[in-house]
Design goal:
Elements: E1 2-6, H1 12-21, E2 25-32, H2 35-42, E3 51-55, H3 61-74, E4 80-83, H4 101-116, H5 118-123, E5 127-131, H6 154-176, E6 182-187, H7 201-210, H8 217-220, H9 222-229, E7 240-242, E8 245-246, H10 256-274
Parallel strand pairs: 1-2, 1-4, 2-3, 4-5, 5-6, 6-7
Antiparallel strand pairs: 7-8
């Protein structure tokens, strides 16, 4: 039985992932932005007594820190952390802390959550699973604009953060494999969800049109569930998975320099927020 954390668990892929993994759980900790919505969703869910809801807005680093502190009051061991939450937001939309919304929600919030939970993750010799996308392949070299504040469009910003999910996984492997932690990234497939609801205009219209051809959230959760359930010995640490198999990401996704630079930049941003 595992202690599980899933972000973005109240819709789409996250919800299907939670339902599939809950029977395997001793404790399921769910960071959620909307507590009332989450309470209604888990009501009547078999195994709901194993669930603890944690108030957390991944776009606000102060909220992430407070939520991580609450998680550690429930347990000192995490076996599986699934960084699933994400979204596509209008380019140059900022959070109250002055961060790009796409950068904060899709990358920095998960980066900080993972860092805050490291002692518990090390104790559990955890798997960290980061949900990325084949959209990472549209990203060029992001090193000149890790913050995304120069990104011209919603689509280019999203492609970059999906690359960040892969780079983050790579760097976790490099830094923490010796501690027993394994990290993976994955493409869930093109999934029919509420994804893109924060966008507007042409981008929103294109998403709605293409979603007619997308797969169900249940099908989209299959690779995440596979990584969570499969023993580490049968997985490739640090790899990017598509349809439950390792696949080579873009050349930028393989760059050790980029993964290290992104990690250092993320730490610099968090340090600046403290001062």
């Amino acid at each position: 039985m595992i202690n599980l954390i899933v972000t973005g668990s109240t819709s789409g892929i996250g919800w299907e992932t939670l339902k599939a993994l809950l029977p395997e759980c001793k404790l399921a900790l769910l960071p959620v932005r909307n507590l009332e919505k989450a309470k209604k969703m888990i009501d009547g869910l078999p195994g709901k007594e194993k669930i603890r809801l944690i108030s957390m807005d991944l776009s606000e680093m102060s909220s992430v820190k407070a939520g991580a502190k609450e998680i550690l009051q429930f347990t000192d061991q995490v076996d599986v952390l699934i960084n699933n939450a994400g979204g596509m937001f209008p380019a140059k939309k900022l959070t109250s802390e002055g961060l790009d919304m796409t950068f904060a929600t899709n990358h920095l919030g998960h980066f900080l959550l993972t860092q805050e939970l490291l002692p518990a993750l090390e104790k559990g010799k955890a798997k960290i699973i980061n949900v990325s996308s084949e959209a990472h392949r549209i990203s060029g070299d992001p090193s000149g604009d890790f913050s995304l504040k120069k990104s011209a469009t919603t689509i280019t910003a999203y492609g970059k953060v999906k690359l960040y999910n892969i780079l983050f996984s790579n760097e976790l492997k490099t830094r923490f494999e010796s501690k027993g932690i394994n990290a993976f990234s994955l493409h869930p497939g093109a999934v029919r969800t509420a994804f893109g609801s924060e966008t507007s205009g042409l981008t929103k219209g294109l998403i709605r049109l293409t979603q007619l051809f997308f797969i169900s959230p249940k099908a989209g959760a299959e690779t995440t569930i596979f990584l969570a359930k499969t023993t580490k010995e049968n997985l490739r640490n640090g790899s990017y998975y598509v349809r439950r198999k390792p696949k080579s990401p873009s050349s930028f996704g393989l760059s050790r320099d980029l993964s290290s630079s992104l990690w250092e930049y993320s730490e610099e941003v968090l340090s600046a927020l403290k001062s």
